[in-house]
Design goal:
The protein is of the alpha/beta class. Helix content is 48%, strand content 11%. The chain folds into 2 domains: 64 residues, no CATH class; 171 residues, 3-Layer(aba) Sandwich (Rossmann fold), CATH 3.40.50.300. The strands form 2 sheets. It has a 5-stranded parallel β-sheet. It has a two-stranded antiparallel sheet with strand order 1-7. β4, α9 and β5 form a beta-alpha-beta unit. The mean pLDDT is 89.
């Protein structure tokens, strides 16, 4: 069936109601309704469900963009053949997002390149699809933003932004030693989000190695204890996952090999010399 089976009057009304995207699938739905002899109510439910699903998908995409999630790091794109080892049962539990409902945290720990960030962002995408607000950023950038916010009196607003989201993803935490200001900011963040919102923290170091990276051991111990006693620990080990993320050249983008010059052309060039 073609789009012509939809009358102009129907098109006009749908566009007035800002439902113009329903026209993309409406002809197919008309055909399906006739074949299955749907009732008017079932047909109405079908086309409205299509529109609801489309809007949910669009909203999830917008949330993921605002969250700064890598669009390529979705769980369905994770390469199961990778030589990477982790507790799959625990990952399935985290993918259920029950930890967000409980305001619990997650630490994803492992050596460089094993896919810690990928898994964190993948869980973030699932959260966006379920309607949660998410924000993902590197630990060094987060601390830099907070430090700069002190100079223009926007510190409270910047901290609120980190505290307000349902899921905060902090990548590469405890990679470098923190100065006094950064330690205080980290303490404030971990304290504010304790039992109030979930975090996923990726790190090359386990929580038992975080304490020396803080400038203030007393505050650090308090913040780390709060966090670790309310978190799941996903340990990832194995070979580097990054080669699997490397862009691959497709047949369309492969350069055409230049044909080798014929013998007569090579003789001609030699004679000209």
């Amino acid at each position: 069936m073609t789009q012509e089976i939809v009358s102009q009057d129907v098109k006009t009304v749908l566009r007035r109601l800002k439902l113009g995207r329903m026209l993309d699938t409406l002809p197919e739905r008309f055909t399906l309704a006739r074949k299955q002899q749907m009732t008017h109510q079932d047909f109405l439910l079908l086309v409205l469900s299509d529109e609801a699903s489309r809007r949910d998908g669009q909203a999830a995409t917008i949330r993921a963009q605002r969250a700064r999630l890598d669009p390529a790091m979705c769980l369905e794109r994770w390469d199961e053949t990778a030589c990477v080892h982790y507790d799959r049962t625990l990952l399935n539990e985290l993918a259920s997002l029950r930890f967000i409902e409980a305001s619990a945290h997650v630490t994803i720990v492992g050596p460089v390149g094993v896919g810690k960030t990928f898994l964190a962002h993948a869980i973030g995408h699932i959260a966006c699809r379920r309607g949660y607000s998410v924000l993902a950023l590197r630990a060094d950038q987060m601390l830099k933003n907070l430090k700069h916010a002190r100079f223009d009196n926007s510190y409270e607003a910047e901290l609120r932004k980190l505290v307000a989201v349902d899921l905060l993803i902090v990548d590469d935490f405890a990679l470098d030693a923190m100065d006094a200001t950064e330690s205080r900011d980290t303490y404030e963040l971990l304290t504010e989000r304790h039992r109030a919102g979930s975090m996923i923290v990726t790190s090359n170091r386990g929580p038992d190695e975080w304490l020396p990276t803080f400038a203030d051991p007393v505050r650090a111990q308090s913040a780390i204890d709060r966090f670790t006693n309310n978190s799941y620990d996903l340990v990832v080990e194995g070979e580097s996952y990054r080669p699997r993320m490397k862009p691959k050249r497709t047949a369309e983008t492969e350069p055409n090999p230049q044909p080798a010059p014929s013998r007569s052309r090579r003789r001609g060039r030699q004679n000209r010399r």
